[in-house]
Amino acid sequence: MSPDTHRATAAAILPLVGGPDNVTSVAHCMTRLRIGLRDRALVQDEALKAVPAVLGVVDDDTYQIVLGPGAVARVTPEFEALVREAPPARTAPPARPATAGALLERGTALKEARKARNATPVKLLLRRIANIFVPLIPALIGCGIIAGLNGLLTNSGLLPAVVPALAAIASGFMSLIAVFVGYNTAKEFGGTPVLGGAVAAIIVFPGVAKIEAFGQHLAPGQGGVLGALAAALLAVYVERWCRTWVPQAVDNLVTPTLTVLLPGLVTLFGLMYLAGEVAGGIGWFADRLLATGGAFAGLVLGGLFLPLVMLGLHQALIPIHTTLIEHSGYTVLLPILAMAGAGQVGAAIAVYYRLPRNRSLRTTIKSALPAGFLGVGEPLIYGVSLPLGRPFVTACVGGAAGGAFVGLFNQLGAGFGSTAIGPSGWALFPLLDGPTGLGPAIAVYAGGLSVGYAVGFAATYFFGFTPQMLTDLNTDPGPSPTLTPPSPEPAPA
Asked: In 374-466, which residue ranges form alpha helices assigned H by DSSP?
């Protein structure tokens, strides 16, 4: 798509979310444009869903518009530019819904019904933690792929002069990831970002090896991202405390000093050791879980991951993945969780063949399948399976079957994982690694994808539709889609 097309998409979206005066913040993840809103009632949901580039909407702590991978990274800066360039409002903002009934339907019902279910303290905390790690994903992907390429060159003996350079490029970010986590933690929780990064930097400083805590010398990097998150969070609270009593005349000197000093001491003589023990426990538990109950664990993890994606909570697993990568060099969980996307793809293909007369839905599937094969399942979730209801459940069945397949081979000793987080589907192949070598890892992962595709297809083809659904849906609805992606709550099966 051309830049003009991306700008046109942004221009189409802006008035439908209440105009620039209604936008308080703009951000994006891998597939969604995330907008902070002053007044949710000004958003025109159905009109947004009708914009050709929009694959779905999600009403959460921010209003999220699903645009798909690649497109969202290009539309977001255009949207931000339009918001910045907009002249000050000279007229009243768009009118609210004219009747109390419409207001209830478009505002209160959405906020009360959905957020009452989703805005629990635990879920809100998980989303905030996810906000810390989501900006790091591009670097994790890039460095992970470079690490995989470096592994191939090392094993093949090719280009030996390049290997050390690639190792440095791949490892540089991971060696300092604690600093980035600390910076983002302070930013997310309302502190000064650079102070959070400064406290977290203590963890990776080589000189900590001279410090003894709990009867043993610390190791640089001990505690990893978990320690960095905890240290920066403590720094935020210390900074807030300082702001309440430090006189303004000396605030610029005293507050930064105490914000780094006090959490720094706690980090060195407590958090690094404790976070290191937690990180080691996570690694041990993941290894034992798959070694002793791999098939069942894979079944559960693969089957439940799509609902997590649907709710946007899958990003909260990033700290666990990152900890496992720090612990063993790869995360064993990601290849299993990736099977959920395979089940989704299989289910979408079955829908395509079961509804040969529904040209609109088949067009949606054809446009969303490439992203689905690369592991981005949201376009298929919000554009296909979730509105239909039953195919969402059968897609989960396919993911469970693929997860059980991969988990079984972990249980049999052919364990492997991903050296980075972010992509899944076919895009995960370059990131695979394990003690048995790259070949077995690729073979098992490909087998899991095949099982997920096949079971997702079969379960959807034979059990994904009632006779009445087939009668209603297997028709040509004309140029406009019959189904529009709803909120992230599953339709009744």
From this structure: 378-380, 386-388, 390-411, 438-463
Among residues 59, 63, 65, which one has the least CA distance to residue 109?
59
Fold of the 3-116 domain: Gyrase A; domain 2 (3.30.1360)
* DSSP type of residue 134: G
d(CA 276, CA 272): 6
SS3 432: strand
119's CB contacts (< 8 A; 6+ apart) are 61
- Both structure tokens of 63: 């209003």
Question: 401-444 pLDDT, tens per residue?
Answer: 999 999 999 888 888 988 878 778 888 888 888 888 888 999 99
- How does DSSP classify residue 55? -
Shortest CA distance to 262 belongs to which of 241, 245, 238, 242? 238
Rounded to the nearest 10 degrees, the angle between the axes of helix 193-204 and helix 224-245 is: 140
**Across the chain, what does the average pLDDT equal?**
83
Distance between CA 10 and CA 82 in Å, rounded? 8
Q: Which stretch of DSSP H or E encloses residue 197?
A: helix 193-204
Specify the DSSP element, H or E, that contains 233: helix 224-245
pLDDT, one tens digit per residue, over 319-339 is: 888 888 887 788 899 999 999
Which residues make Cβ contacts (< 8 Å) with residue 450, sequence separation at least 6? none
Give the residue among 63, 68, 42, 13 at the shortest CA–CA distance from 373. Answer: 68
- CA 3 to centroid of chain Cα atoms: 26
User: Which residues have a catalytic role annotated?
Assistant: 29
CATH 3.30.1360.60 range(s) for the chain read 3-116
Can you tell me the distance from the alpha carbon of 115 to that of 130, in angstroms, rounded to the nearest whole number?
18
The residue with tokens 């309440």 is: 244
Q: Please name the helix (run of DSSP H) or strand (run of DSSP E) that holds residue 433, with its range, or none.
A: strand 432-433
Structure tokens at 477: 């609805």
Quick check: pTM over 0.85? no
Among 46, 43, 40, smallest CA distance to 16 is for 43
DSSP of 64-126, one letter per residue?
EEE--TTHHHHHHHHHHHHHHHPPPP-SPPPPPPSSHHHHIIIIIHIIIIIHHHH--HHHHHH
Structure token pair of residue 274: 């404790």
User: Helix 318-328 to helix 272-311 angle, to the nearest 10 degrees?
Assistant: 130
Sign of dihedral through CA atoms 452, 458, 463, 469? positive
